[in-house]
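A protein record pairs a chain with a discrete description of its three-dimensional fold. The following entry can be read in just this way:
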Amino acid sequence: MTKNDIAGVLEEIGTLLELKGENPFKVRAYQAGARALEGIEEAELVRLVKEEQLQTVKGIGEALAQKITELHATGRLEFYEKLKTSIEPGLVEMLQIPGLGPKKIKALHDRLSIADIAALTKACQAGSVAELEGFGEKTQEKILAGIKNREAYGRRHLWWEAWEIAEPMVAGLRALPGVIHAEAAGSLRRGLETVGDLDFIVAAKKIEPVVEWFTTLPQVKEVTAKGETKASVRFESGLQADLRIVPEEQFAFALHHFTGSKDHNVQMRQRALARGLSLSEWGLVPEADRELTTEDGGRKTVKAVVAERTLSSKDQAPTSKSGKDGEKEKKGDGRQGSVVGTEKELFKALGLHFIPPELREGLGEIEAADQGELPRLIELADLRGAFHNHTTASDGRNTLAEMVGAAEALGWEYLGFADHSKSSFQANGLSEERLFAQVDEIHALNAARRFKTHVFTGVECDILTDGRLDYEDAVLAKLDYVVASVHNAFAQDEDKMTARIIRALENPHTTMLGHLTGRLLLRRESYHVNAVKVIDAAIANRVIIELNASPWRLDMDWRHWRKAAERGLLCSINPDAHETGGLAHVRAGINAARKGWLTSENVLNTRSLAQVKKYFAGRKK
């Protein structure tokens, strides 16, 4: 286990002990142990374990040292396993409801015998929770809203989590004998921020081995359907995956159709019809030659049916393109009106330039592809660094040096830090003294040339309730850049929140705005803010708006970026990484940027180190 894995186990032990009502000092000991572990580097942990010197680290006693050593060596901890089984699963599940921590859950369990979300719902609806000391009517309303949102959110999954499942599955499908093509389709391929289910399209010479492989994967919890050319499975997370196997000549059509979106597909079919063609998941054929299956199982083209109806005085009903009046569109014939082997050729057959999957939302991409070649969208390889990242100085789980080392491993030219400011008590925000100490550490690190990656000094500065920033101007002036973000008072109305953010943008030291709406996908709704007015203010004050690439945020939303970028708004794709692995989240940010039609020219962190230094220097002037 890595140090962060071990720290995660220690944190969970603390939470579980709190649910059981254990001694607060014991709970804090595990939380402190997790923090102490995060504050040392991975190599140092290996040395301390090997030399049995863990107790020399402040915050780690003998008992904790033994548990850390056991986890590090075996990846398991008997004490942890027994603790988990001693607590009712429903209590742990209740932690997923916003605003419910271990103390409140224990109070609900002790006073109302609530042991799961179903019982909690009934108690709230009966008004029992509001009557408890320390809760009240507002808390009860928030709990009910949280339960309702959780039910709605449960039908979707974060793109990142779905991608982590889908990526190795696509690789596995492609490696099977007889598989010609294999791709993930649906909202995952379009890079939508959340995914309902997974779709896999495969062209293969042998079908049975593919279906068998798909339905017997070790992570599959349930096989919900298994046919000759289709199969559906469900994973432990509840995510469903559908497999469709088609002949090679149908692959491009099936991939396009099941990639979607629905609006894009409807517009593509309308374009085909306007050219006398019929587009479907099975092919592209002249409309008159589209085959239908009649009630008696026979086959007729649309042209033949129309001719028969014209001659018949008994059948005056118009022919339906959807196959009404007993006629169903024949599936699986694979007939094509033109040779199409790829999606690019499919678009070309309809007089269009290629449309990347991320743009297929029915939001003007077809009209743009009709007028000319679409812009080259930003790619992951274009990024040269990022600016919004955290260390153990605030609420991160890796040291500054570990974060820079991870950025160097990615080949990044630079990395910037934005640990929390002093008002973010919950995130161990930095006082002025601690901030200056970090600045000195960064300058020393650059001077020592320990890493090829250059480090920029910054801070994620809280926007206070009235729009002022959390530090005085003289403090902010010592930094390379400032990320201004809202972290509290989310209940302000739209006018107040908008005015609050705009005032922060007008501060000459604000370089970029962090996570515009404060949303946490599938966890917390956005606060109320007028995005258009904020974008106007950012452009007027030459402030960057970040595209926060955390899979839980992806904020500012991709739906705002196309128009904003056309007006000159500059973007920075930031991972908001709280550990080394979080730097990779820029992959999710690239999806959102592409959906927002962004090119590398629209994004600050595609620029070289020299160009970024020049930008920050010019911004200060």
